[in-house]
């Protein structure tokens, strides 16, 4: 079984994993947001499945909804927040050389991590 994890902002499930990529489905609860963070060893592509999200990439804020996508290069600061009344669901495709949770450098975090 692939990894599943509950988080203070929602949850995620790993859908696929290999030495070259990792694919997650991520649910963000209404009013919650992930930490403002960056990764040194991976890039990410996000595809919004449902919900209303506010995304910050290197200080630039934009709104995304179902069908929208964006690329986050390695080393870029990023965050997603749920600004709607239902879960934000998105698919995250990671590419790079390492996909461990310890390649997260948190700059700001609502949950003190």
pLDDT averaged over residues: 97
- Major beta sheet summary: 6 strands, antiparallel
Compute the number of helices.
Answer: 0
- CATH homology superfamily name: Jelly Rolls
Q: Judging from the principal axes of the Cα atoms, what is the shape?
A: globular
SSE succession: EEEEEEEEEEE
Number of strands: 11
Q: Which CATH C-level class is it?
A: Mainly Beta
CATH architecture: Sandwich
Strand content: over 45%
CATH topology: Jelly Rolls
Notes on the protein architecture:
This protein is mainly β. The chain has a single domain, classed as Jelly Rolls (Sandwich), CATH 2.60.120.10. The N and C termini lie far apart (27 Å). Helix content is 0%, strand content 57%. A hairpin with a 2-residue loop joins strand 1 and strand 2 (10-17). The strands form three sheets. A six-stranded antiparallel beta sheet has the order 1-2-3-10-5-8, with no helix packed on it. Strands 7-6-9 form a three-stranded antiparallel beta sheet, with no helix packed on it. Strands 4-11 form a two-stranded antiparallel sheet.
